Amino acid sequence: MKSKYPEIGVCGLSCRLCPAYVMKTKSKCPGCKTDYRLGGPCTILHCAVKRNIEFCGDCTDNINCEKWKKHRQSGKSYDSFKCYQKLEEDINYIEKYGLDEFRKSQKVKEKLLWVMLDQFNEGRSKSYYCIASTVLGVDELEKAIKEARNRSKDLDIKEKAKLLHSVLEGIAIKNNYYLKLRKKSK
């Protein structure tokens, strides 16, 4: 699949904030719409390849598509390895402003994610920071990083991570955000 936006899933998920995407190893996933992922089990991606579309919202059958409808509905309740909590908002953003603008917004969040990973990751916080980057707004992330930087000057990396977690949790509690992957109920 030749894609202009390999790091934006056809379903509307952003790969840029996925733990598999933000890796510095050979096993880094280059994005949902790449050969790396085409062998996987994503039926939505396989459908998009057949239809040669970048985004499910561009498909002529999107209103009646049971696959996309089910994916969107399940995204309201639970996550997989990637946070789906903002999926519906992201889809609405893409439909209103387009994939180029969505990519720009996700690049800003990815940059902030890398700041957290480079300056506040004790080796156990990558998934947590990916979720926080997905759920929180840019202003909230910038504020959290600034506060953690100001309060962590003489701390070791474990203490820095704990501090940033605390700041992010404070923002989450205040705004009723959930900073964990939601498990599928049985």
Summarize the structure in short.
The chain contains 8 helices and no strands. The chain is an all-alpha fold and 186 residues long. The model has no long low-confidence stretch (mean pLDDT 93).
Please provide a written account of the structure.
This protein is an all-alpha fold and 186 residues long. It contains eight helices and no strands. It has helices at residues 35-38, 43-51, 66-75, 87-97, 99-120, 126-135, 138-151, 157-175. The protein starts with 34 loop residues before the first helix and ends in an 11-residue tail after the last helix. The mean pLDDT is 93.
Report the major sheet.
none
Taking Cα atoms only, what radius of gyration do you get, to the nearest Å? Answer: 17 Å
Name the average pLDDT.
93
Termini Cα gap:
35 Å
Q: Helix/strand/pairing class, anyone?
A: mainly alpha
Q: Give the helix level as a range of percent.
A: 40-55%
Counted by DSSP, the helix tally is: 8
Percent strand: under 5%
User: What ranges have pLDDT less than 50 throughout 5 or more consecutive residues?
Assistant: none
Number of strands: 0
The gross shape turns out to be: elongated
Keywords:
186 residues, mainly alpha
Task: Walk me through the topology.
Layout: H1 35-38, H2 43-51, H3 66-75, H4 87-97, H5 99-120, H6 126-135, H7 138-151, H8 157-175
Helix pairs in contact: 4-5, 5-6, 5-7, 7-8
